[in-house]
Fold these 2 entries.
Entry 1:
Amino acid sequence: MKAEEAQRKQQPAKFFVAGPPMLFLLLFFVAPSLIMIVTSFRFPGEFGGLAPFAPSSVPVAPIGTPVETGFTLEAYEFFFGDIIYAKIFLKSFAVAAATTLICLVMAYPLALLIARSDKRLRNLMVLLVVLPFASNFLIRIYAWMIILGPESALSHFINTFLGAFGLGPVSLLFSPFAVLVGMVYVHLPFMVLPLYTNLEKHDRSLLDAAQDLGAARWQRFWRVTWPLSLPGVFSGSALVFIPVLGMFAVPDILGGTGDILIGNLIKDQFLGTRDWPFGSVLSIMLTLAVLSVAGLAAWFARSSGTERAG
Amino acid sequence: MSRGNRWLWLAAILVYAFLYIPLAVVVIYSFNDSRLNAEWVGFTLLWYKTLLNDHEMLLAARNSLIIAFSASLSATLLGTMAGLAIHRYNLKVLPVLVFTPVAMPEILLGVSLLLFFLQVLHLTLGMASIIIAHTTFCVGFVAIIVRARLQGMDESIFEAARDLGASSWQTFRLVTLPLIMPAVVAGALMSFTLSIDDFVITFFTKGVGEPILPIQIYTMIKVAVTPEVNAVSTLLMLLTLVMIIIASRLEANALADKTSATGGGTGT
Amino acid sequence: MTCRTDSRQAGPKSFFRAIPSLLMSLAILFAAGCGNHEKSANSAGGEKVLHLFNWNNYVAPETLDRFSEFCNCRLSQDYYSDNEEMLAKLAAGAAGYDLIVPTGNAMDTLIRQGVLNPLDKSLLPNFKNINPAYLDTAFDPGNKYSVPYAYTITLIGFNREKLEALDLPTDTWAVIFEPEHLEKIKGRVTVLDSPRELMAAALKYLGYSANDIDEHHWKQAAELILRAKPYWAAFNNTSYVRELAAGNLWLAHGYSNDMFQAAHDAAKTGRRFTIEYSTPKEGAVLALDSMVLHRSGNQSDLAHQFINFMLEGKNAAELTNLVGSGNPNMGAMPYIKPEIANNKAIFPDPELLTRLEMLRDLDRKQRRLLSRLWTEIKLK
């Protein structure tokens, strides 16, 4: 009786509180996504944008083939018709995976140290990790243009070093290496924070117990700390992997000729080739890719969680 | 300090160096007396003077501030409501709607909003379109922070309020809101920062004639790079640093108040 | 347990207790500061604003200021660095521009779409200043919609000392496409990140027209490009200017006025090399930029005033003197610096002019094909 009453009392409040955000997001998140799906099934306009649903009454001088209207699978055929697009997706996955791995290797020791530090120092250290994030994202990428440029101190140093072994000069900038460095640099805080949040909650007594049982430092880490930190590892990895998949600014600014990723291709369709249907197809494919990665991450996190409980 | 910790410290210092050296480079070159960022020539404040006279840049900064304010205001409002709703009520749809934009690559959101604004709303792109777009992706962040705070709170305090006869609104106003305020403020600040810094979504949803700071910087990087870009970022970094120092000073005071109010920080 | 959570969250999160008020005051200061700046620069209330959609750095600041005074109005510019970008934004419905400065083929598109307002020649007495050679293009016969503004040639810019030392030719596309030349400058060359421009250069080198739409010829051009690609440092539309002047690049495929800028920068920063540029003998792309009126603009009178203003010889010359762009305005010649007026790369001989072509737009099927070819080129 009391539960029902409470439920009924909740109803109006529920609408007031949940209503506005729900409406807002339905309008500005769900609707646009649906529009994008619809767009992928349409013809591109003669001059960009989209062709009308039905033949328009206003005559438009055709350049080539007559204007086609209505719905079509043309854009999807175009996508599946050439293996090049699958290759770009694979490439983007590879870059995302590499970035995630490097971020993990770099972030883990730092997160561990912060988690084990004195409480006041901890806050400062977390702050220091987050602070670079406060500067403009483009500037952080641009800084690497300066550092990796062919005339920079670093380039000179590395090339002199290589020269001593008779190896040719390498260009650090406008290369896959530069793209990777840029990606890691931009996403590192996203790996540190979830890891730290997880590691901080670890119970020290477990490690002490392991030590008492004679486990070496390495074993203590591998058998106790690492498994417990897996949920943090997975959420950090997801927070890095997914944004990297969709990035275009880093390859755009730091990348070389062949370093385009799926994000660049999508951007080109909308702001370059003006092929909206194809751009939508690419976006939908990217969304599917992201959803599968997110699903995998969630599944891993859950299964490692149950292991821990057991 | 044990041997293991020493390695950790070394690794940590290397990572911090990795994080900060590029920023130091940007700052140092903002004082470089050369139009190119290639090598150090001499010290000058020319670029800061140029910056202060750069009408476009100042306009861009103003527009970005306006957008960030508006977006963080609406995002905080909607996000707090969402966070509350998700925590309190057993909702199925709202969590998905709220948290997905956070997880999605920004380009997808930017592109779909562009299509939506033009095709369906026939909205002329401008400040309004950017504010809406920014709000959409910031709501999730606020909701996450508010909800996390709520999850860490003791439910009994709400039950107590209800038992004492407080209505939902009273409970919210006098109990919930003060308790979640730090999270709300943190969410507001997060939205503000995200909005000022946002490049991708702004790139797709911006309109004509109104310069926006990150786009301005992007154009400068790709086209007419002068150390003026370095000057802008140095100032922005300085601003954030000052804000955070002041905030931490105030936090120390606030923590003292809070500790006495809730009866102990580390104990119990 | 609860208290510990609270205090832990009190840490980073309640940091920002007073931030809102601080931010508020900063923002107000900022807005007020900018507001004052603007007010002092212009007359009070009801000020007219002319919206320009233009290439970067395509109007001299002095010219803008003078026009501002002349018309008692304000100019607001939005920029693009690529015609495609401009067209895409317009196709996406961007509105409110009074004046746009598109290149020939983009203008072709705009005219066909019907989004331009015809010009009222009676408001443009200075129109007679334009060199007839640049009027009556295939895109706009009779110049109903457009007034030529400036032109650039897509050519090659290079570090003269380096290329001389390596004994490389500087008057042919071969130096961009032939591995035998590229070996010597590997990693020091960039080409434009524009499918149309690069394909045009390749097609010209192969002896075809830049507007060739034969799929086989396109495949040939793509193969030529792929063969040369490993030697190129990057596909780049803008920062090659900086890199050439800094000495990082020795050769670049780019626009004549960008090369002018690079040469100027190199000289000004006291580099030990000089940047020169030349039009390859096989021919190249001529980009004629014209002023047009977009139908979404609402300042038609002001726009006409601006066009007429820019048609004055003295004003037209300012842009050329600033960025080294080609000038179709005969009245401007006396005002142009002699070293620019005599530069064959900026003001080509009539003979070379015949081998320069203006790009025409493609239909949607051709655009898609080009897009795929381009993706393959980028990825292989």
Note: Chain C touches chain B through 55 residues (CB under 8 Å).
Entry 2:
Amino acid sequence: MIKKTLLIISFLVVWSGASFSDTEGKKICTGFGKWTEDGEYKVIRSKCITEKEYQASLSAPDYLCKYYQKSIWKESERAYGKKQYKYTEKSLAKINTLKAEGKALCESGKLKEGELKLVEAIAIISHTRMN
Amino acid sequence: MKKILSTLSTFLFVSSIATSVFAAGDEATIKKLSSMYKSGDTTQAIVIPQDTKFAANVKKNILPNINLPAGFSISVFAVVPDARHMAVARNKTTVWIGTRKDKVWQATDRDMDDIADTVEQFAPTVKFDIPNGVCFSDDGHLYVAERNRVLWFPAAEYFMESPDTVAVPIIDQGNLIPVEEESYNHTARVCAVNKADNKLYVSLGQPHNVAPADKLDLYQEVGIGGMISFNRFPGDLDRKVVATGIRNSVGHAFNPKDGSLWFTDNQVDGMGDETPPGELNKMPKMGMWYGHPYTGGGEVRTNEYKGKTIPKADADRYVKPQVEMIAHAADLGMMFYTGKQFPKKYHNAIFSAQHGSWNAVKPRGARVMVTYLDSKGNASKTEPFADGWMTDMGTYLGRPVDVQQYFDGSILVSDDKAGIVYRIKYEG
């Protein structure tokens, strides 16, 4: 009896949590999937945030600081992104230095200065020939 | 056919006194094929099975998720690996489908039920290099725009069942763009024939996120980051740069009503999740400029050129987009609907594919858009026509690349993720 009661309570807690999430708006998910040998499409990894959280992130003062850092990582550090460009060791080193300087400025609250450093790094990426 | 043979004879005479530079690794083959000789290559066409568990799974797992306006339905037309841009032949012979790899496919409905019965490799003895752009002229000529070559197949409809198909370079390997500018990214070419001047129009994406200043003169001269036109038969090429300031256009079509050229353009990365917008553009006259690299999409200035004065020669020719699409949706292939099957509201509307992008927190694209035109031939409204290739969990079931009209007025949609060509029809 106690077990049953606990189960019901747990269900209600989870259900109310889900309902609360729904009121925050439509979820935005990014993920990957693949076809199984049985012919089903399976989601392997998916990360969700609410529309409200997404909008809040876009209007956050440090949005560009974070966005630019992620963009630099995607294009010049992540293996898939890195191999798309004809980088030289020198250009990669310069990008890394600018990113580190930009990140430090952003973290110290100097957001505009940080953004400028990060944009400098992105400019190197932008002007590098693609493979 | 007489015209084709006559044109070929002229070409053979010209080629006998001139030396072509073929460097695609298939020089000897192309030389033989263009002279209407057998290549001697024993390569046989790869055949893609159609009635498979994979096809059944696509019908079960993808089709039910696609949302369409009332009265429309979607079905599988063909299983086509890496399906990109399409060219529909005359007289229900076949549909050619380009890829970003090394093959062109032909999907043929042999029993006239509007479903491809066979999908085979087209011209298997030709070594294609990113043969993304395929286009077919009203007078029966197939063109394939590769990364750095343009081939003419004067009798593709007649020789399509043979491994050896007459293939003639209109632009030799290495002459579409300077070899030093070759890249993998941004080299999916598209082509279309302009009925007004009977020339072939090919887009040339520029190989950077944002073109650097020291390349701009060269790019303007060659037409990289732009579009070029040239004669579609051998002889005097008469190559012209018809548009510049384009970052990477992978879809264009001529409005059959007024002859204006429209094209999509993929815009700059690294500026934000929701900026800059993608573009659907119109070329009211030749020689216009579309903003890149000074603008990243719409009228949003790129960080790299912010504060720099746009040269007057460019600014005077600037044309802003007809439609600003959502950022990073990757607008690709497009067409004007000239059929009668769809309801009147779609007549002469533009259908365009959004491939979708990973480069944004909020997944987007993976759908077919429709843009309606007003009485002056300008865009009046754009809205989704078919979506659902992206799940609520943000995963892609498919990624639409191109939209082309089929014989009966239905439309074909290619998908290079699922490797499928869909057919959307209206039954009311």
Note: Helices of chain B lie at 2-17, 27-34, 53-61, 156-159, 216-222, 312-315.
